[in-house]
Design a protein that fits this description.
219 residues; alpha/beta; Rossmann fold; six-stranded mixed β-sheet
């Protein structure tokens, strides 16, 4: 007896193709000597809270985003602590948040080399060439005191059509020196800097930054 399978059933059994990656987001967090253990935990917890935010999750899934986390400090001190995760389902976002929460600190008591951090982030982005946009999201609480020139790393990012945005973590009452450093030396054309007033303000600032990046209009 010949089995006749309805055409609609056949189509339903064929796996739907994976959505194209809309954005690759490399989150680079500062773990230099100016960041104590409590401030490190505030950054990690802020990132976990950002990934738990309903609007951020929706945007990540809509973009079928690829996300990785890099810790950075002085020259030759950059570590891809959470390798690239493709966020195609809510469970993938949950798994990413769990990996971030469990992430041990990579470096202690060392210099601040944002230029080297951007260069390392650029190298990591080579693993996700299929994503329509590629974004480096760097955060830090001080300007450069070690390593290669940040402006040179920015120029390399611009040449490769990679966006660099920043969160500047400022000490209360000291103006905006870190913000100005990132604005003048790190962010690419069309990029932006958001200012967190202390590490305790990091979570709210990161949420706003992620939404601004993820909801950017298509080019």
């Amino acid at each position: 007896m010949r089995l006749i399978v309805p055409a609609l059933l056949v189509l339903s059994l064929v796996a739907a193709p994976a959505r194209a990656c809309g954005v690759a987001l490399l989150l680079a967090i500062d773990v230099s000597g100016s960041v104590d253990s409590g401030e490190y935990r505030l950054q990690v917890e802020g990132l976990v809270a950002g990934l738990a935010d309903a609007a951020v999750r929706e945007a990540l899934l809509r973009e079928a985003a690829a996300v990785a986390v890099l810790q950075w400090s002085g020259p030759r001190q950059q570590q891809l602590s959470v390798p690239w995760r493709r966020l195609a389902a809510p469970a993938a976002v949950d798994a990413l948040a769990a990996a971030v929460a469990a992430m041990p600190r990579a470096f202690h008591s060392s210099g601040t080399a944002p230029g080297d951090a951007v260069a390392a982030a650029m190298a990591a982005l080579a693993a996700v060439p299929d994503c329509r946009r590629r974004v480096i999201d760097i955060s830090g609480d001080g300007d450069q005191n070690a390593g290669s020139a940040t402006v040179a790393a920015r120029a390399a990012a611009e040449a490769a059509a990679v966006e660099v945005n920043a969160i500047a973590i400022e000490e209360m009452g000291l103006g905006r020196p870190v913000t100005e450093f990132y604005r003048r030396h790190a962010i690419t054309r069309g990029g932006f800097v958001l200012t967190a007033r202390g590490h305790a303000d990091y979570a709210d600032t990161l949420r706003a930054k992620l939404l601004r990046e993820l909801l950017a209009p298509a080019m």
